[in-house]
Amino acid sequence: MTKFSIIIPIYNVEQYLKKCLSSVINQSYKNFECILVSDSSSDNSTKIACDYCIKDKRFRIIKAINTGLSEARNIGVTASSGEFILFLDGDDYYEPDLLEKINKNISDNPDLLRFQVRKVFPDKKMDYNEIPFDTMSGIESFNKIIDYHFIENAWSYCYNAKFYRKNNFKFMKNCLAEDFGLLPLIIARANKIKSINYIGYNYVQRGNSLMSNRNYNHKIKKMDDMIIQAKNLHQEFKKINENHRFLEFINNSLIYYSTTLKYKDFKKYKKVINQLKVYDYIPNNNIKRKFKKKLIEINAYIFYNFILRYLWKK
Fold it and tell me: Which of 60, 141, 194, 228 lies 20 to 30 angstroms, CA to CA, from 183?
């Protein structure tokens, strides 16, 4: 049986795709399949993907039409047959022994295994070293994960396929914040999560990527998508008794992202997110946090754009 299914959505990444796919084909652990979901690329990405499928039978391509990243991942999951699922973006790449490291740490069959990430810039690399933890429940583990970077990024975890399918997890279609809306729920529903002390994912920083796109309409759509998904998550977490840290993350994410918008839009969205009682979940368990909470409640835009940036850490 196939051990790992690696799902790679592909859209206009010809400059990066060979390095991405080579990092998979060169894995030291060989029992995997790689599902390439090519979504109407206008460059040579689809041809490159097809070449790898010819070169290695473990690679197969699914050609989609204007599905977007979220649905491309969903399509890949449906087509997968591995015991465990991983996501990889077409402009990023793995370390050569990632699957081997994961395989050595899943003997207890966890629902979710987290590994660590490196940011790759044109002129430097930045490692994010986290304190790993042994197997624990999802609710318990989030008390640790909430202090990490890349909390909700789908590609920083390995998923037990039975657990994933049993819960019918789906990324929201046509969404610019699909990870934000799903990963907290996956973590909350997991009975067994562990985090390993290994940096296996290289997150490439490129100026024209979806996540770094400066198109303001994209920022507004992302804000709208985050609100929709936050409302869904609030409903889900009502079913979970110990949900404070999840709501803290969700609501604080909404507050922070709203402050990256133009001030007139920040004021508009503040009225919307206030309906979710977002300020109730800002940590205030010491004097400094109480003071910070009060400043954010007065004006989060000024706090994040001026006070935090120029004064808070000095």
Answer: 60
The span from the CA of 19 to the CA of 226, in Å, is 31
> How many residues in the chain?
314
Q: Compute the average pLDDT of residues 83-111.
A: 97
Greatest Cα-to-Cα distance within the chain, rounded to the nearest angstrom: 62
Residue 204: burial class (beta carbons within 10 Å; 0-12, 13-18, 19+)? buried
Q: Is the pTM of this model over 0.85?
A: yes
* Domain range 4-204, CATH class: alpha beta
| Conformation bin of residue 87: beta by default, left when phi > 0, alpha when psi is -120 to 50 | beta
- Kindly list the domain boundaries of the chain, sorted by start residue: 4-204, 216-312
Transcribe 208-250 into DSSP letters: TSTTT---HHHHHHHHHHHHHHHHHHHHHHTT-SS-HHHHHHH
Contacts of 220 (CB under 8 A, 6+ apart): 261, 265
Would you say 45 and 15 are in contact if contact means Cβ atoms under 8 Å apart?
A: no
- pLDDT at position 306 is 85
Residue-wise pLDDT tens digits, 115-172:
999 999 999 999 988 999 999 999 999 999 999 999 999 999 999 999 999 999 999 9
Distance between CA atoms of residues 35 and 62, nearest Å? 7
In angstroms, rounded to a whole number, what is the distance separating the alpha carbons of residues 77 and 64?
Answer: 14
Q: Give the model's confidence band at 291: pLDDT under 50 very low, under 70 low, under 90 confident, else very high.
A: confident
| Mean pLDDT of all residues belonging to the chain | 92
> Scanning the structure block, which residue is given the tokens 């808070």?
312
User: What is the Cα–Cα distance from 34 to 98, expressed in whole angstroms?
Assistant: 14
CA torsion sign for 92, 97, 100, 105 is negative
Do residues 37 and 50 make contact, with C-beta atoms less than 8 angstroms apart?
no
Instruction: Give, as one character, the DSSP assignment of residue 89.
Output: -
